[in-house]
Prior knowledge:
The chain has 11 helices and 11 strands. By secondary structure, the chain is an alpha/beta fold. The site of guanosine-5'-diphosphate (GDP) has 21 residues, from helix 3, helix 6 and strand 7. Guanosine-5'-diphosphate (GDP) binds next to helix 3, helix 6 and strand 7.
Amino acid sequence: MLSLRNKRIWVAGHQGLVGQALVRALPATGASVLTVPRFALDMREQQAVRHWLRQNNPDVAIIAAATVGGIGDNQARPADFIYDNMMIAANIMHESAHIGLEKLLFLGSSCIYPRDAMQPIGPESLLSGPLEPSNEAYAVAKIAGIKMAQSYARQYGCRFISAMPCNLYGPGDRFDMKRSHVIPALMMKMDVARRQRQSALEVWGTGTPLREFLHVDDLAAALILLLQTHEGTEPVNVGSGQEISIADLATLIAEITGYEGDIRFSPAYPDGTPRKILDSAVMRGLGWRPEIDLRRGLMQTYDWFLQNKASAAEDHYVA
Ligand code: GDP
């Protein structure tokens, strides 16, 4: 058990979806949160990361910094996704090992698992088959991060743990019709379509893929519990256990946004992986349960979007 009281916790990526949720949740543990704005530290630069860590000397670090995006963005910018994410993970872990940090939590994603993994997906599936091509570059960078955490734990005894969340959503996400993940993209498309009284809009793919969504505040609670109670280098899956098809998700978002036109599926766009539900037995064993159901979480996220349209559409190159 690691008490976080009075610990100085660096949330790397505090402006992203997960980072913002951590900044909201961590103060209740008695920890003090360290952040550094993106313009002041480029985490892809090793010297800059070394300097910042030595100057600030946190007790704990959470790597929530990443270049992230939806299926369209992953396909358009594979070089950015592989380079940025490998550099961020390598620099922070390597330099953290040298300042004797107490504990580090690395965040990955369910796309690290093979496209045809057995469902629900357990950590033993890692590297057991080919990846989904649409986000392979991102997945390889995240797999490298897990392997780095394991290697630093083995060689140097570092307490580096890894968590793999399912698809996330919530306030603070990036809302962009082309680059975002499906929930913010559809919220934005439907919001615009309703206001412009469009009679139809396009949803990418066939509508048949299944996705498991988790509200980012539920994830933040899980991550804090992991920091406090979990040791071990095997990645820990964090999922809601609830699946929904993209077609049903689109109907639900239409209801929430008040969009009444047609929903047309466009198979010219990729579906991505057909299904990826996580086996989150380790988290359940620790007593964690998600508290925000999808409908309520989507309503809250849409309210946030309506009140924060300007910042929600900002370009985040590193979340
Ligand atoms: P993924 O889980 O890595 O595939 O992430 P996404 O959130 O980008 O996409 C999830 C699913 O939603 C995929 O099957 C997409 O084809 C589908 N989808 C439908 N419409 C959209 C859209 O406007 N944007 C995105 N990103 N995905 C969409």
